[in-house]
Description:
CATH topology of the largest domain: D-Maltodextrin-Binding Protein, domain 2
Structural class: alpha+beta
Distance between the termini: 65 Å
CATH architecture of the largest domain: 3-Layer(aba) Sandwich
Number of domains: 2
Largest sheet: 4 strands, antiparallel
CATH superfamily of the largest domain: Periplasmic binding protein-like II
Number of strands: 9
Strand content: 5-15%
CATH class of the largest domain: Alpha Beta
Shape: globular
Order of helices and strands: HEHEEEEHEHEHEEHHHHHHHHHHH
Radius of gyration: 24 Å
Amino acid sequence: MRLEIVIPPSREALLEYLATGKGDLIAAGMTRTPEREKSFAFSAPYQFVSELLIVPAKDTTTHGLSDLKGKTVSVRKSSSYYETLSNFKDNLGFKIDLLPEDLETEEITGKIPATVADSNIVQLELTYNNKIRSAGPLGDVVEIGWVMRKGQRDLKTAIDAFITKLYKATFYNLMVSKYFKDAKRTRTDQKLRADKGGRLSPYDDLVKKHSRTYEFDWRLITSQMYQESGFDPKVKSWVGAKGLMQVMPRTAQELKIDDVENPDKGILAGAKLMARYSNYFNSADISAKDRIRFTLASYNCGPGHVSDARELAKEMGLDPNKWFGNVEKSMLMLSKRDIAKKVRYGYCRCEEPVNYVSQIQNRYDHYVQIVPMH
C-alpha cells in the first residue's frame, strides 16, 4: 500500500481530519480519554504516562492540585489536559485559561503560572530547562496510542498487532531513549575550580597542544569539553557521538581522525571541527568574541540553524553579527513552528544551543580569572 502522510496545521485539527476522512489513522501522541472514546477507536497503547502539573521552578508553594485555589492553569482546549482539569476545576476552585491551538506543550512550560504536560515530555524538557518543575500528577497513569475511526476493524487489528510486536522491543527502546530519555543535554553543573596543581582537567596538556594548532584559547576548549563530556572520554550519546568532544563517527571520518575515544584524538577532532565552523564566520563585521560564540552554537546545532538565526535577526531589527542580546534572541524563534517553516534549515529546538553557548561562556570567563593563558 502507498502510505500518504498528512500534517494538519494544528493538533486540534488531528481529530477533525480523521472524522472527515482526510486521514485514516492519527499516528501522534494521543491520550486515551473517555470523551475521545465516544467518537473514536484507540489502538493498543505504546506509552503509559502521568499528566503532571507544571509550575515555574521559582514557585515553591504549589505542590499539587489542592494548592491551585484562586489560580489559573493554562492549556489547549483540544488537549487531554483540558478534559482532566475540567473534572477538578469546580471542586478545587481554579480557573482554566485556553491557549492557542498552535502552541506545543514544550513552548508553554515555564512561561505561565501553571500548565499540564505528560511525564515523558517533562522528562525530556528537564534536560534542557531548569526553569520549571513538576508539582505532581493529576491522577492515574494514562495511555498513549494511535487513533482511528470507529468501525475500522481490520485497520485496528493490524495496528494493534504492529504495536504489540513493537512495544518494548529493540527499535522501540531505541526510539524512546532517543526522543524522551537521553537528549544531548546541556550540563547545568559547573566545573569551576582548578586542582591543587592549577589544572582544569586531566587533559590540559593535550588541550593546549591542539588549541595552539587551531588558534583557540585552551581554556575555552576545556570549558566546551566539560560541557560535552564532563571530561569522560568514554561517554557516548544516543546519536552515537563519542569522546571528550562528542564528535560523530562520520564527522571524525571526514576530519580523517579515527578512535575519538582516545583523548588525544578526541580533542584533536573537536578543535579541528571548531576551526572548520569558525571559518564560516571569518568576517571583518564579526568580532573575535562573537565569531567564537557563533562557532560554539554551530558545534551544537549545526551552522545552518545559526545562518537562519542571523537572517532572522536582520528581519527583527537585531544585529546579525552579535550573539548575546541579538542572534541568541532570534535563534529562540526557530523553535516556533510558523517561523521554522519559512527558514531554510527548518525547526530547531534552539534553547539548547543558546544555553550551550551561555554556559560555556560563563565557565570560560571563570577559567580566565583563575588560570593563566600559558
